[in-house]
Records
---
Amino acid sequence: MSFIIGKKCVSVCDTACVKSCPVDCIHGPIETNGAGEEVKTLDSVDGLQLFINPDECIDCGVCEPECPIDAIHSDNEDNMEQW
Ligand code: SF4
């Protein structure tokens, strides 16, 4: 299991979640091994979003309440496809 970052993150890329993750498995929006740092260097995040590497996620749930727009959910939630 893993947590996932859903469509609400598109064009937002807040990065509050990145700082909360104890295993640094939240990446993007471009760098697959980055930690959201490039968000600060981009002129625009239009169409971009952060993502969680499911192979690295330990399913702790710490990031979920950190997202200000409720974009993070567990992949075992009911109706998960809506995210
Ligand atoms: Fe990181 Fe835990 Fe969120 Fe997984 S659930 S992305 S390990 S903070």
Note: The first helix runs from residue 16 to 20.
---
Amino acid sequence: MAYPDMLSLKGQSALVTGASSGIGRAVAVALAEAGADVAVNYHGSREGAERTVEMIHALGGTAVAIRADVASESDVKALYDTAEQALGPLDIVVSNAGRQKDAAIGDMSLDAWNAVLSTNLTGAFLVGREAILRFRRKGMRPEVSRALGKLIFNSSVHERIPWAFRVNYAASKGGLKLLMESLAQEVSEERIRVNSVAPGAIATEINRAEREKDDGEKAMLALIPYKRIGDPEDIGRASAWLASDASDYVVGQTLFIDGGMTLYPEFRGGG
Ligand code: NAD
């Protein structure tokens, strides 16, 4: 098969969590551009999810918005049931939902710790576990993909780079690294591909306050060798590639998409 044809997701169904905004929306749209039908999960913003669905309809694609809290076991099961009723068995799942609740350690409440861990890590576990169960039930569909299923987590450069004043977030993403790798080790022999994308600084709601501070963007750019803040579409395109047969031999990897942030640019010429 020629390389451009391998990028096609035609005939496949996908679920993207936290797709009412930011990176999740861009991933949902990129998967639809590649031909997949997409279930657009949201938690707070129904309007945001409907906007994502409209963007996919405008491309001539198929999409449906479904509310669920990824930290709730019963919500996650119901999310998959509704997605499969609407689109048929799922071939691709992108566990993207995530949040921050920053505080210095002395001020970090247990609630702030639990809120971030339950969405970013427990949510990834619940969404990932259900993806594996559903892929198994679906069975191979060699006419659309060489893999039984593709599960992609949205991690962060902070699965590698420690982050002061945000220990809850960094711990959740550090945990996600070994969740992804251990899961990949467990299920790869079933032809289930588990991988992560790890974004650097991408312009979305999650970091708007940080970017809009005086010199906020300048401080971010100092950490990025490539000297631009990322767009959600940078992650969308990479996720669509990771979901496609063009990356069929990529298993258990974290793809850093960060303009070089993980190169520790402060060491350039010094250190
Ligand atoms: P965002 O705030 O626009 O998106 C987060 C999404 O997750 C929202 O749609 C929100 O409704 C959803 N969400 C939060 N809690 C949820 C829950 N319990 N159930 C279901 N959905 C829930 O910000 P974003 O930057 O697009 O974040 C998306 C992912 O990207 C997160 O996992 C984040 O950690 C990761 N990330 C972002 C950046 C960045 O620079 N923007 C960098 C690295 C990693």
Note: The first strand starts at residue 13 and ends at 16.
